[in-house]
Amino acid sequence: MENISETLGGLIIVGGAVAIVYILARFNYLIRKAAYERGIELSSRQNKYRYVDYGCILLGLGIGLAASSFFTLLDLKEDTMDLLVWATILIFGALGLIATHFIRKTLED
């Protein structure tokens, strides 16, 4: 019975992820189609700094992962250590997003 619930849970998660990707892709397609029919050219400015976004976010996550490895050296309970590791990774990922915002703002001006 436990295997069935784990399998069903996994299928629900994967199905939900597929549904979200489909909905987002379909919405993007419809927006572009409507803009094309009206003769509106979508600006490519959004994609101009795409790699800066990815780079800063990945750099922030990488620094967070490196900083979180410090918590594995401490003598902490497993739950506390897991919480600190994930919190550190997410905090540094958020700092990467903030850095991305300021870098894009500087480059666009």
From TrEMBL:
Q: Give TM segment ranges.
A: 12-31, 51-71, 83-103
Q: Does the keyword Transmembrane apply?
A: yes
- Write down the superkingdom of origin: Bacteria
Keywords, sorted A to Z: Membrane, Transmembrane, Transmembrane helix
Q: What is this protein called?
A: Uncharacterized protein
State the species of origin: Flavilitoribacter nigricans (strain ATCC 23147 / DSM 23189 / NBRC 102662 / NCIMB 1420 / SS-2)
